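Lecture notes, unit on protein representations.

Consider one protein chain, 193 amino acids long.
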Amino acid sequence: MPSRSDDPVAAALERAAALIVADIRALDAANPVVLIDGRSGAGKTTLARMLIERWPIVGRVQLIALDSIYPGWDGLDDGVERALTGILRPHGRGYLGEWRRWDWDQGAEAESHAVDPALGVLIEGSGILTSATAAIADVRVWLESGESGRKARALTRDGDTYRPHWDRWAEQEQSHIARDDPRSLATRVIDIP
């Protein structure tokens, strides 16, 4: 079995985590907001988990995956808007935020989750870097990765559940990139093989 150092994706994510932890430390903030954007299969979820394990600030961080908020396969933009209005804006003003989990099996909203403004927030998901979200985030990450590697990783992870939706989701991601230019909004761009 190859070591993580033999895996170029894992090595790139390890380097990214170290850089982002340093970025968070440099903020000198008790409740920073970190956003991780990139196309499907780029490594957002893995990187977010690594950052949670290495979080450099005393206290816990609140991890929110947009996959839990998007209202279905056509909901990229709506999920981002829900994160902006329910989480990021209240957090930035020092108010309790709230988001509702999307139940993919039922095709409906499920339970609510509170977001404590005193704690840091890490949101990962395609579409999260827009001019509106970037204005209230401290660390903004864009993961750049080619389609063949991303698609292989995403379909290995989610298989037949995701396969029929790949193209329609990719179109929404492409619209986001063309409209919002998330790479230009990032404070840190990470290339993932």
